[in-house]
Structures are given as C-alpha cells and as structure tokens.
Amino acid sequence: MKDKIESSLFSALQKGDEKEIKRLYENIYNQYYKLVYFCVAKFIADNEIIKDLVNESFLIFFENVSNINRSMKYYLLNIAKNQAKTYLKKSKNIDYVDDSIMLNFPDDDVKSSEIYISLIDDLKCVLSDLEVGIIIYHAVDGLTFKELETKYNIKAKTINKMYERAIKKFKKSERSYLYEK
Q: Which of 9, 22, 142 is nearest to 68 (CA)?
C-alpha cells in the first residue's frame, strides 16, 4: 500500500492534479503521523513541542516532496529527526550528540514521552527484546538492515526476516489495534 501511495503521489505531482495531491497528502499524514511523533518524542519531552515539530516536519516534507530520491518514510523520518536536533540546539544552546540507542532510555527527558514509552511497552508485551530493538532501530531510528547486521552481529537478511516476522506477530496481537488509524 505504501508503494502505491508513493507512486500515486509522484504521478499526481507530474500531472499537477491538485485534488489528488491533497488527498494523498492527507493519507500520508494519517499513515505516518504516529511514527513521526515517536521519532521526535525520542528527543523531546514536551508534547506541545513534539506536535509542533511533527507538523513542521510534514510541512517541510510536502514542500520538498519532489526532491525525494529514496523511500518517503525514511525521508520523512530524517526530516523529523533533524527538526528535533535543531530544536534542541536552539532551545538549550547545546551540541547534539547522536546516541546509538534510546531504547534503554538513559535520559529522563526521553523517559517522560508517554507515547514513546507506551509504544515500547506494547511491543515488549508481544515481542522479545531483540525484536523490539530491531523494530525501533529500523522503523523509528531509520537504521538499515546492513547497519543492524553490524550492531547485532547477525546477517542482514536474517534481521530483515526477524523484522518482518515481528511486525506480523505484533499486527496479529490484541495490542496492534491501538496503532491503527
């Protein structure tokens, strides 16, 4: 479905079909809102600021959609992550250090993000710690399976299969309804 939305969007952009573009933008926003929210919530604790940064990320995404040369999801998540980093630099006047893992919540600011924590808790109720880590690293942090191969010392193809199985397992669980639109 995601590939269909992506190809439909690029087709509508080429044709200049404003009505279809608006419809697809709404679909993209609804489909990726929670994921972008989780991505920003890893860095920022204040829900109002998170919402502002999420909306700003979507605006930047839609303004630059014609420049996408890879997956929409990863492009959007990169924008969100950069928005959060920029906010932290400006608001706290600090240099951001990219932590490789936020899953263990070493920072109290990250711990206070209720939505992010509830996602992790829901995933942990259904999946193993390894599966949760793979999902968070890949879906939220945007790491590739090749990068995860190095991190876990497991072949990228195996990690890819583990990711797919974990997603299916979670979708079949009773907790998955919480994340469906």
A: 9
For residue 136, give Cα distances in angstroms to 26, 91, 102, 107. Answer: 25, 26, 9, 17
pLDDT band at 104 (very low <50, low <70, confident <90, very high): very low
Euclidean distance between CA atoms 140 and 136, whole angstroms: 5
User: Above 70 in pLDDT, residue 3?
Assistant: no
Q: What is the distance between the alpha carbons of residues 117 and 110, in angstroms, rounded to a whole number?
A: 9
Query: Using CA atoms, how far apart are residues 152 and 42, in angstroms rounded to an integer?
Result: 21
> Whole-model pTM above 0.90?
no
* 8: its two tokens: 């439909």
Q: Answer yes or no: is pLDDT of 99 > 70.
A: no
Work out the widest C-alpha separation in the chain, in whole angstroms: 48
User: Is residue 181 within 8 Å of 31, Cβ to Cβ?
Assistant: yes
Cβ pair 2, 31 in contact under 8 A: yes
| Contact (CB, 8 A) for 32 and 54 | no
